[in-house]
């Protein structure tokens, strides 16, 4: 049974077994043209319809688990974490109430052509700056809504204003920082590393924001890049390790851009989720004229 047929079977089972929950197959377009399909759960009296992506459950099916058992497991999971509340989304109806929640992210322009046809964006080198709205809810957690052209009509505003506000919020509130890569690895649990010995051997830094989410947007901020240049000591390479963070290191005679590009492509192919890839090549910050080039 193929994946989409599997979703249909599980959906039919849950709809037959539950009186107050309706399930339908939902397909979502993610970053870089990645399309994910899962099951969306709707409950009477609740305007939140969470989607459970089913790849792990499909693997369980392929390994012999019965459709009924999978359906029962999903129902239990949903009921245990059910957002049986009505979200107050009235803030989204006008620009004045939504503007403080606007932020930017960087995405790959070529891989997101379809999305960019219906979303406001600004060219940045070979990438694109897009805007999104952060949604906060105490009961069900946080989420994001990507800004599309239809929202500009709803808010009676234009692309330039939305992106300008989103850039300012991102710059002022996202607390971008640069940390030595050994400090980052240690904070992730690699306590056996000797930072004092290895710092000189690996003069690399990680640039991101406090939440480590969509932190590659710092590439668009000239003052932050200048600060990083002062720390690193001049020109530096920017490795777009994902949409969430950058790796920076000083330019020297031992680093060739073509070798770095090959490494980036390898990592993007083998280590990253396809929707987290930002670019397949390195960028250069030139300190003499304070510009980022590729």
Q: Helicity, in percent? A: 25-40%
Strand order of the largest sheet: 8-9-11-10-12-13
| Domain count | 3
Give the biggest sheet: 6 strands, antiparallel
Please give a structural write-up.
It is built from 11 helices and 13 strands. With 294 residues, the protein is of the alpha+beta class. It folds into 3 domains: 3-80, no CATH class; 90-173, no CATH class; 177-293, no CATH class. The chain has a 6-stranded antiparallel beta sheet with strand order 8-9-11-10-12-13. The longest helix has 15 residues, at 3-17. The chain is globular and about 65 Å long.
Key terms:
single chain, 294 residues, alpha+beta, 3 domains, 4-stranded antiparallel beta sheet
Give a quick rundown of the structure.
This protein has 294 residues and is α+β, with helices and mostly antiparallel strands. The protein is 36% helix and 25% strand. It is built from 11 helices and 13 strands.
